[in-house]
Design a protein that fits this description.
Elements: H1 2-27, H2 29-70, H3 75-98, H4 105-110, H5 116-127, H6 133-153, H7 161-183, H8 198-244
Helix pairs in contact: 1-2, 1-6, 2-3, 2-6, 5-6, 5-7, 6-8, 7-8
């Protein structure tokens, strides 16, 4: 009886902590920025869908007009058939736009490098309710780092060492850390057994991930600065050097 009471008490504490973490996320700067990014992504996705619908309707209308001019008049039935085809195309486009594959560790491992930060962030957001408040704050910080890294990963050769390190960190090691924590029974996550509690192990592991992302950001920025300096030197030699030569 006492064990059951202790278990129920612990579950209530975890639920309250999760609620508190969600409330903190909604009022924190990280949470506001994350919601803003999500709204911007939804807006862009809606604009892409509307654009595809417009082009599909235009293509079907042009095909119908071409048929009527070159082959045979459309007539009422032809116009109805063209309108029905447009409606079916719109339904297909909307269906494809709303069926977005869930971000899973398996999907992360096969994502294109430029999309990997966003997909990782989406996966992390879904893990937040099952994490303690200190880990939630760490996850929010990691999401901000992923947002900052995203532009730097555009156009980078995915076979470079830093790209491989980044993919392994966010698509293998980070999910393994969080999923390993989630396998521990909820009532035991805050208890230290022969060492530190699982809650503390999780936060320390996330802190290491955060430090590694900072190092990768600095490494990529150094490469960008080196390329900029090289290009600047090239332009100086090509144009200013040539301009200094006697006519």
């Amino acid at each position: 009886m006492s064990n059951d009471l202790a278990r129920i008490t612990e579950e209530i504490k975890l639920a309250v902590a999760a609620r508190a973490g969600e409330a903190l996320h909604h009022i924190s700067p990280e949470g506001r920025r994350q919601r803003q990014r999500q709204r911007e992504r939804r807006r862009k996705a809606m604009l892409r869908t509307l654009s595809r619908m417009m082009w599909a309707a235009l293509a079907i209308a042009i095909a119908a007009i071409g048929w009527g001019i070159l082959i045979a008049p459309l007539g009422i039935m032809g116009v109805v058939a063209a309108a029905a085809t447009i409606m079916l195309a719109w339904i297909a486009i909307i269906s494809l736009a709303t069926v977005e594959p869930a971000a899973t560790p398996q999907a992360l491992a096969t994502s294109d490098l430029p999309l990997l930060p966003q997909r990782t962030e989406e996966w992390l957001v879904r893990q937040r309710p099952a994490l303690p408040a200190p880990a939630v704050r760490m996850v929010d910080s990691i999401n901000l780092q992923l947002e900052a890294l995203s532009p730097q990963l555009q156009g980078i050769d995915p076979t470079t060492p830093v790209a491989g390190e980044f993919r392994k960190l966010v698509s293998e090691e980070l999910p393994e850390l969080i999923q390993g924590y989630q396998k521990v029974p909820a009532a035991m996550r805050g208890q230290a057994r022969g060492g530190e509690a699982p809650d503390k192990h999780l936060v320390e592991g996330l802190s290491i991930v955060k430090s590694e992302l900072e190092r990768m950001t600095s490494q990529l920025a150094s490469g960008d600065l080196d390329r900029l300096a090289t290009q600047n030197r090239y332009l100086e030699l090509k144009y200013r050097g040539a301009g200094d030569e006697p006519a």
